[in-house]
Amino acid sequence: MPQLSVVVPVFNERDNVKPLIDEITQALRGKADFEIVYVDDASKDDTLSVLQALKAQVPELRVLRHLSQSGQSTAIRTGVKAARGTWIATLDGDGQNDPADIPKMMAQRDAGSPDVKLYAGWRVNRQDTGSKRWASRFANAIRSRMLRDATPDTGCGIKLFEREAFLDLPYFNHMHRYLPALMQRAGWKTVSVPVNHRARGAGVSKYTNLNRALVGVADLRGVAWLIRRAKRTGVEEIG
Q1: Which residues on neighbouring strands pair with residue 40, listed in sequence order?
Q2: Contact 186, 168 (CB under 8 A)
Q3: Helix boundaries (H) for 37-71
Q4: What's the gap between Cα 90 and its chain centre?
Q5: Which of 4, 9, 120, 231 is placed for a possible disulfide with 75 were both Cys, Cβ 3.0 to 4.6 Å?
Q6: To the nearest 10°, the Cα dihedral for 197, 201, 207, 210?
Q7: What element of type H or E holds 63?
Q8: Looking at residues 106-111, what average pLDDT do you find?
């Protein structure tokens, strides 16, 4: 069984698939037993065909396909549920996350406390447009004030977390943007890790500042409600 499953959700990313898989294998071969789980979210280009062709060249690669487009959070959860590793690393499929950061995050996990279940990437030098950076700073400031999750960047696609802890979280669309707050709600600690960030390799972003803002308001209120309503207790077995 692999120690690590790298989960990558994709939608219309045919030109970014091979370069990113090459980088993942280069970063992890010889350092960890791993698998790569790509989840194609019903792409309308030939992303799936590219992935199928690569399976013959990359023994670590597994490919899942959604029969209907369901969004990034659902694709991530699909990949995590199918994963065989006890720990999960996620990457955005556009190539902006650097797979070379995964071994660094694993080393930090190995040296860290066992009650830290999430290591979240922190893009300290973002390679996005000015408007996107501004919108992200604004959204992060509002989120931090409402949720008090002590996380400077929840939108970064590269994360390392324990599979079991993730699957115990409440599931909803766009939940991937609130993993630090949700993990803390469950009683676990989280750590932000500075990571590399790059310009998109090919294709176009699937999000705009407007659609992020529209769904973000409702999501923030929902996550804040979940945090207020959370109950935790220790458990002991008798007998």
Answers
A1: 10, 65
A2: yes
A3: 47-54
A4: 4
A5: 9
A6: 70
A7: strand 61-65
A8: 97
Compute how many other C-beta atoms are within 10 angstroms of the C-beta atom of residue 14.
17
Q: What is the mean pLDDT of residues 225-230?
A: 88
pLDDT in tens, 156-213: 999 999 999 999 999 999 999 999 999 999 999 999 999 999 988 787 776 554 555 5
Residues written for the chain: 239
The encoded tokens of residue 213 equal 């803002």
Amino acid letter, residue 224: A
β-pairing verdict for 4-10 and 34-40: parallel
Q: At 69, list the tokens.
A: 């487009």
- CATH number 1.10.460.10 given to 4-128+152-204: no
Would you say the pTM of this structure is higher than 0.90? no
Tokens of 150: 């002590």
Where are the chain's structural domains?
4-128+152-204
